[in-house]
Specification:
It is found in: Endoplasmic reticulum membrane. The protein has 1115 residues and is α+β, with helices and mostly antiparallel strands. Helix 8 runs antiparallel to helix 9, helix 15 packs antiparallel against helix 27 and helix 22 runs parallel beside helix 26.
Length: 1115
């Protein structure tokens, strides 16, 4: 029996311990409760069933369609449906979701329609980028939101019986077909209601809707997109889609082949839908089929563990002119990351989405605007924040030029027409006489602690010298009504003193809204409080201030309360600074080793207001625990006794003077993340770095800290181990699953190679350990495929990731997969050994049972004499193949693979029982031979002994114990090799069966309610896997000798096929598509049967002869 050495055992033990530790730490981080900061949404729901027609093949009897009504009063359903005249919106639930999940969105939409639009503010609005058509001359960008909504939203919800559409492609396709049926039924219902009102003489001035807005959660969002490209959908029946935490690029964990195929098919149809339709000769046929469809994808951010932001991106599927993705962490008035289900009821997000949908209505028709550019502009303004998505000063300040640098506004200017002018509206205009005496600021930093009604003058030429060419202003005062900022070409007392040809420029509306923490509480009236957090930020660059001499900050006056001064809750801080002075680049090795050095993360007073931290390792992979402490704030003494003063007292005093710090983190994948009141927090972004398809820029995370320059700070940053393990598991789960099959293929290759070299077939654990040896096996099995993937990426013009981080992450995933497979091997091996020992023990005890055992033997003999049993025993592989393939093609692929798995398990059990029995007999014989010689007897050639009191057995000493180098294997060793071979196939097909597990669970849930044949793709691939298990069940099929013109006597060895399969699976894993590994598994199976049949055909013709080598080794 093969025994691993101490070094090999230690290596496997360390690997298993590390993987288990990693798994426990990651699960702890994932299962730990998350605080999302969301408010609850309350409602009074009523669900009105909509009668479905029987037209088409949609399963109308199984599913359902409901109309939502908000209110506690009892209503007449028929009368309510007859009054339908609003904008139809269809909600599609996700995996295992309920139609009742529409209640939060529908209830807030009803309240928003009754109350009216959100209160208007004068902060800067988000802009369409040039890629989104922002430079085009169109009326959409200048579109002003209304003061009153014109139409209400009629919310419908589809009841999909809570089925798990994320587990099975057949369910997903069936849901798509039914949603198409529901869309048609909704439009028909509006027509029926219109005719009914017209017949009764009621008002029918509203325009009939021609399209339905789709809102989908999770997989419901993908179903919405699949319905749009369904050939049965009416033209222009859907023109607007909003998805909430929905995967678009690929399934979160792509295991089922047909599931991945369906995703690719839908995305391919969407790409074609935005292309101009031409004939085969290249002549113009029609415009893009989806030219009127706008898609908005809303992600939940880093707290959404089920669907990562990378999968929710629309890149490469929907062009920027027709949609975009936005994270809830960067959404205006939301600023929160939320879990997968929380996104449905988070009140901050629900309110913003409701007002956005209501804003789509055209006052002329009462239905959404038909122009896609107008709808996209509305989505951008209502959902996006004006905070730039990148804090690269040069890029963002170049963008700000487009709306600021014109001495007079030309209405024909294309760029200027895109944005709201920077001046405040006339109804909040201040008179110059309302301001008290002016203040002239002589320092680069200006501070406002109260609404004192004063105007502060800052000399740009003087204060902006010595590299301090940028100006930043943070405040909690509202623009226009609380504070106003102007750029002056010259010093004048009022605007009336300026000549007509010279105009000052008001930049107040360039202030950007940012989330602010809770306002500080005042202990007693008139007492000092902690500094208020900022709620707005303004940035001006050198080009913005070019041609101007002065910058003024005017603060509105505030009357006193009961003769006392107003509470000190107002704040504003402005500064001229050099952004290069606050730039710090942080090495990826600093966090894991010892945190960041104190010197690099300490700032003295009068530091830049904005500090730019560049993390060369993405915070989506290594989240940072950030701790910021105020070291001083210019207060020399607190006035308290020494025993009462200290760091705590100093911190409290500094909070009275300095505003709470704010952090803005930007990631290329997830966009903007805002962290307020950042004294101690975890900075993490929902990124996907170090992937095959990730560009180099995704490796970095930019963080801008906005901190009060009056205070000095010391900070520390360390990597959160639990957060890092959790993020790694979330981002690279698909890669680890795919690598697990790679590890098995390489282990099978090692076994087949040993057979070809006439060596003992190693166990799976031994093969796995051998493949981890450094340098030769490890380099060409684990490192070489990485280089191959980079070459393939270069060939297909795919952005190349950073080689170092990509290699490190891929190797870590490979080690984790090895550990997982090692655990699987050990678990199954212990199970097989335990079952075999139990079987042998029961058999021995049963043989000593006397009459009872004889009675059972007689019954067993009678059963085995049946013809069916004799046929099965005579052709076990053929029967297994027929049963497994029939189930895989007619019922479910998982059932067919389960039959194959049971066949492997039975063979492993039989071989192991035979091996252990032979081992026990050999051990007993040696023991009795030792006793026989000890008694002084000779050594005869034959030793007769009685074992277990059952029977006498004769064993030739030469058969079981020979030192000859050419001696054949013993029976026990042969059975052990058979066990190792079938155990390897068992592990491979066990993982394949588990990959079909979610689909099989969904199939079990639908038994009795629906039946459909499996996808042809799944059946064909699972058949190939079954054939692989059948036609390579014997170790002798590790090599084939075939002949075909013009090649004769070609020997095909399975270890080469396994090596190719491992490399292909490696690339599929790097592409986060483990389902593709079924293709190569099936290819190996079909190749095996093809080679077997060809070999038999050659043998029958006599063209080639299969050489069955005498497999022997030293004992």
């Amino acid at each position: 029996m093969e025994v691993l050495g101490f070094k090999a055992k230690s290596k496997i033990a360390v690997l298993v311990v590390l993987v288990l530790s990693f798994g426990f730490v990651a699960l702890y981080g994932l299962l730990k409760p998350v605080s999302n900061g969301c408010n609850m949404t309350y409602m009074y729901p009523t669900y009105i069933p909509i009668q479905m027609t029987n037209s088409g093949a949609a399963p109308a009897a199984k599913y359902g369609l409901y109309l939502y009504h908000e209110g506690w009063k009892t209503i007449d359903f028929k009368e309510h449906v007859q009054k339908l005249s609003g904008i139809p919106v269809l909600f599609i639930p996700g995996n295992g979701g309920s139609y009742k999940q529409v209640r939060s969105l529908a209830a807030e939409s009803d309240r928003a329609y009754k109350v009216g639009p959100l209160e208007r503010t004068f902060y800067e609005e988000a802009r369409l980028t040039p890629e989104e058509g922002g430079e085009e001359d169109m009326d959409a960008a200048g579109f002003e939101l209304k003061n009153q909504y014109d139409s209400r939203l009629d919310w419908f919800a589809v009841d999909l019986e809570g089925e798990h559409s994320a587990m099975d492609s057949a369910v997903l396709e069936q849901h798509t077909q039914y949603v198409v049926h529901c869309i048609h039924r909704i439009l028909d219902q509006y027509e029926e209601s219109f005719k009914a009102r017209e017949k009764e003489g009621a008002a029918t001035s509203a325009t009939l809707p021609k399209s339905v807005i789709l809102v989908g959660h999770s997989m419901g969002g993908f179903v919405a997109r699949a319905a749009v490209v369904d050939p049965l959908l009416r033209k222009s029946a859907v023109e607007t889609i909003i998805t909430l935490s929905s995967p678009h690029q690929q399934p979160p964990v792509a295991l089922q082949p047909s599931y991945g195929h369906y995703f690719r098919h839908v995305n391919r149809e969407w790409r074609k839908g935005y292309e101009v339709q031409t004939t085969a000769a290249g002549h113009y046929l029609s415009g893009p089929a989806l030219s009127n469809v706008v898609v908005i994808s809303i992600s939940g951010g880093y707290n959404d563990y089920q669907v990562r932001t990378k999968y929710e991106s629309l890149d490469g599927i929907v062009p920027p002119t027709h949609g975009f993705m936005i994270s809830s962490t960067g959404m205006k008035n939301v600023w929160l990351s939320m879990e997968h289900q929380v996104i449905l009821w988070c009140n901050q997000l629900v309110i913003q989405v409701s007002h956005t949908l209501l804003s789509l209505a055209d006052s002329r028709t009462g239905q959404p605007f038909s122009d896609t550019r107008i709808r996209l502009a509305i989505f951008s303004r209502m959902l996006r924040s004006a905070i730039p998505q990148s804090f690269n000063w040069r890029k963002q300040l170049q963008l700000s030029q487009q709306s600021m640098h014109t001495p007079t506004r030309d209405v024909k200017d294309r760029t200027e027409s895109l944005y709201i002018p920077a001046a405040c509206p006339s109804n909040v205009h201040w008179s110059d006489d309302g301001l008290e005496r002016d203040l002239y600021i002589q320092t680069t930093t200006v501070t406002v602690l109260a609404m004192d009604g004063r105007r502060r003058w800052l000399d740009i030429q003087k204060l902006g010298s010595n590299g301090r060419s940028h100006f930043m202003f943070v405040t909690n005062l509202a623009p226009c009504s609380g504070v106003r900022l102007h750029l002056w070409p010259d010093k004048r007392n009022s605007t009336s003193d300026l000549p007509a040809c010279i105009r000052i420029h008001e930049v107040t509306s360039k202030m950007v809204l940012i989330p602010s923490g809770p306002a500080p509480r005042q202990i007693e009236p008139g007492s000092q409080t902690e500094q208020a957090p900022p709620s707005a930020i303004l940035r001006l660059g050198p080009k913005d201030m070019r041609g101007f001499r002065f910058l003024t900050i005017s603060v509105a006056p505030r009357p006193s309360i009961s003769g006392r001064p107003p509470p000190a809750v107002s704040m504003a801080v402005g500064q001229f600074f050099n952004p290069a002075a606050g730039e710090i680049e942080i090495s990826p090795w600093s966090p894991p080793l010892s945190g960041y050095s104190h010197k690099d993360l300490s700032w003295k007073e009068d530091h830049p207001l904005a500090l730019n931290l560049s993390f060369t390792s993405s915070l989506g992979l290594l989240p940072v625990e950030f701790s910021l402490k105020t070291a001083g704030c210019g207060i020399k003494s607190s006035g308290l006794p020494d025993e009462q003063a200290g760091d705590i007292d100093n911190s409290k005093l500094c909070k009275l003077r300095c505003f709470p710090p704010v952090a803005f983190a930007w990631d290329e994948t997830a966009g903007l993340h805002v962290f307020t009141d950042l004294y101690s927090d975890k900075i993490v972004v929902d990124s996907s770095p170090s992937l095959w398809s990730s560009p180099r820029s995704s490796e970095k995370t930019s963080v801008m800290l906005v901190v009060d320059p009056h205070c000095s700070y010391s900070s520390a940053m360390t990597v959160s181990v639990t957060a890092a393990a959790s993020r790694f598991l979330l981002v690279y789960t698909s890669q680890i699953i795919g690598f697990s099959i790679v590890v098995i293929f390489f282990a099978l290759m090692r076994q087949a190679c040993a057979w070809d070299r006439n060596l003992p077939i190693p166990s799976m654990l031994k093969a796995l350990e051998s493949n981890l040896r450094f340098p030769i096996p490890f380099i060409y099995l684990a490192i070489a495929p990485i280089g191959l993937s980079l070459l393939v990426g270069f060939w297909i013009s795919q952005p190349s990731p950073s080689f170092a981080s990509f290699t490190i992450v891929s190797v870590v995933c490979y080690f984790l997969a090895n550990g997982f497979i090692a655990i699987l091997i050990l678990t199954s091996q212990f199970t097989f050994y335990g079952a075999a020992l139990l079987h042998i023990f029961i058999k021995k005890r049963f043989q000593l049972g006397g009459k009872t055992s004889q009675w059972f033997v007689n019954i067993s003999s009678g059963f085995c004499s049946w013809k069916v049993v004799r046929v099965i025993r005579a052709n076990p592989l053929m029967v297994t193949a027929l049963a497994a393939i029939s189930l895989a093609c007619l019922v479910h692929p998982g059932l067919g693979l389960l039959v194959l798995l049971l066949s492997h398990a039975l063979c492993c059990h039989t071989a192991l029982c035979s091996f252990l029995t032979a081992s026990f007999r050999s051990h007993a014989r040696r023991h009795e031979l030792f006793d026989y010689k000890k008694d002084g007897n000779g050594g005869p050639d034959k030793l007769t002994f009685k074992r277990d009191g059952i029977s006498n057995q004769n064993f030739s000493s030469e058969d079981t114990c020979s030192n000859s180098p050419d001696s054949p294997k013993s029976f026990g060793e042969t059975q052990l090799e058979i066990f190792h071979h079938r155990h390897g196939l068992f592990i491979l097909h066990l993982v394949a069966t588990l990959m079909f597990g979610p689909s099989f669970v969904t199939w079990l849930e639908r038994i009795g309610t629906d039946h459909s044949f499996p996808w042809v793709l799944d059946s064909a691939l699972s058949t190939g896997v079954i054939l692989h298990g059948i036609f390579t069940s014997n170790p002798q099929f590790n090599s084939f000798l075939v002949s075909f013109p013009p090649i004769r006597n070609l020997e095909v060895r399975m270890h080469l096929l396994y090596l190719f399969a491992g490399y292909y699976s490696y690339l599929s894993s790097l592409a986060l598509a483990p389902y593709r590994e079924f293709y190569v598994m099936a290819a190996v199976g079909y190749t095996s049967i093809g080679l077997t049949l060809l070999q038999r055909w050659n043998k029958e013709k006599g063209d080639a002869h299969f050489v069955n080598r005498k497999h022997s080794h030293r004992h």
